[in-house]
Amino acid sequence: MSGYLRQTIHWGVLAVLLALASPLWAHAQQEGTYPEDGASVEGAPEQIAVWFDHGMRITFFEVRGPRGVVELSERPGRDVVDRFEARPVTTLEPGEYTVKWRGLAEDGHSMFDEFYFTVR
Ligand SMILES: [Cu+2]
User: Fold this and answer.
1) How many CA atoms lie within 13 A of 39 on its CB side?
2) How far is the CA of 26 from the centre of ligand 1 (A)?
3) Separation of 55 CA from ligand 1 center, angstroms?
4) C-alpha distances in angstroms, 82 versus 17, 55, 56, 63?
5) Domain residues of the chain, as ranges?
6) pLDDT tens, position by position, for the chain (120 residues)?
7) How far is the CA of 22 from the centre of ligand 1 (A)?
8) Which of 19, 23, 45, 102 sits between 20 and 30 A of 37, alpha carbons compared?
């Protein structure tokens, strides 16, 4: 077998392995949030959450409202989770809130997103 042919076969095997493995490495997506993105909620939510279709290590999670950054009872940890939730230390006053998060997906990709909600 020529060196060229051997190398070609190796690349072919690698391509097949990558194709088979890719579902395991699939890009994690944000599947949902609480409150829902864009929601207008009656009364202060007791928790704010984001969840994913694959494991994610949340590295940053920030809620901002009318008075700036909201103090939360949970901080991002080292655990890989498919749901991250945090409780505001004090009741959220009426107003608009923005939630920003960053995370490291299991496939090694850095992810970030944000969502909004309004407390009436
Ligand atoms: Cu990815």
Assistant:
1) 14
2) 6
3) 11
4) 26, 5, 6, 19
5) 27-119
6) 566 666 665 666 666 666 655 555 567 788 999 999 999 999 999 999 999 998 999 999 999 999 999 999 988 888 999 999 999 999 999 999 999 999 999 888 999 999 999 999
7) 10
8) 23
Q: Report yes or no: 9 and 90 within 8 Å, Cβ to Cβ.
A: no
Q: How far is the CA of 65 from the centre of ligand 1 (A)?
A: 30
What distance in angstroms lies between residue 11's CA and the mean position of ligand 1's atoms?
A: 22
Is there a contact between 120 and 41 (Cβ–Cβ < 8 Å)? yes
For ligand 1, the distance from its centroid to the CA atom of residue 45, given in whole angstroms, is 31
Report pLDDT for 40.
98
pLDDT of residue 107: 86
Q: Can you name the CATH fold of 27-119?
A: Immunoglobulin-like (2.60.40)
